[in-house]
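The records we work with from here on pair a chain with its fold. These numbers are not coordinates but entries in a learned vocabulary of local backbone shapes. To see the layout at work, look at the sequence and tokens printed below:
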Amino acid sequence: MAKYRKKGSKETPMMASTALSDMIFMLLFFFMVTTNMRKATVYVQQRLPFAVEVKKLENQALVSYINIGSPLPSHRQYGTATRVQLNDKITDVDEIQEFIASERERRSEDDQRKMTTALKIDEEVRMGLVTDVKQTLRKCGALKIAYMTRKGERIF
């Protein structure tokens, strides 16, 4: 027989709370599975060059991204010249060393050795800026570099 509690003049059944914890855990797991980790919003053009042989990066958590390209039309306050974007900030090449240092501080000592810097460079960017970025990465000891590309062959 169901238990009832008195509420005013009417009797209503009591709610069973044993399934409540199961429902809460199911919701928790649902949100953990469906939620994506936040990635940086790209403010520069990203027409990546084509490559025939492409390899996927193994551990995405150990990758720091540097985007290089012209600012998108929605961010023309930065001008139209080619710029460097580190996370959500459009900066100059001079701030790359500080960026790499802060990325290293966030990781354990063992992970620091496995860290990769991924360059996402628009296909229209001049090689001089890319060389400056690579020289700066060399100065701060970030020697493991990956170039982001599109898979396929370019048809002329």
